[in-house]
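Lecture notes, part 5. Sequence design as translation. It can be helpful to think of inverse folding as translation between two languages: the language of shapes and the language of residues. The source text, in structure tokens, appears below.
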């Protein structure tokens, strides 16, 4: 059974940074591409970015490109989302995902 557990969310001021973590269980993590999504209240889920199984390739939505970075540690079955230069419009619940599977999410609030 695929299990994904996100952590690291919180309240941050505009311009600040947060690093989200996602612990993966129940599948061969080291051979799986992973992704991050977010969903703000009243809005549809939005793709944030993804990373290949090896970590060699990453790709991002235009809205976060240049500010967010995804990395992974296959030895620890972890994937990370580094978020810099945060904006109020980045406020959302952030989920990591493997295909159609996703975790419970972690809330990120960007506000002064």
């Amino acid at each position: 059974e695929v299990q994904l557990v996100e952590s690291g969310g919180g309240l941050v001021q505009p311009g600040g940074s947060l690093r989200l973590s996602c612990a993966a269980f129940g599948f061969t993590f080291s051979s799986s591409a992973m992704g991050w999504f977010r969903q703000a209240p009243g809005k549809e889920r939005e793709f944030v970015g993804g990373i290949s199984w090896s970590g060699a390739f990453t790709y991002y939505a235009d809205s976060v490109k240049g500010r967010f970075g995804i990395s992974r540690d296959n030895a620890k079955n972890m994937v990370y989302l580094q978020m810099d230069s945060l904006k109020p419009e980045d406020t959302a619940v952030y989920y990591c995902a493997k295909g159609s599977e996703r975790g419970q999410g972690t809330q990120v609030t960007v506000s002064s």
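The translated text above is only one of many valid answers, since several sequences can fold into similar shapes. The chain has a mean pLDDT of 97.
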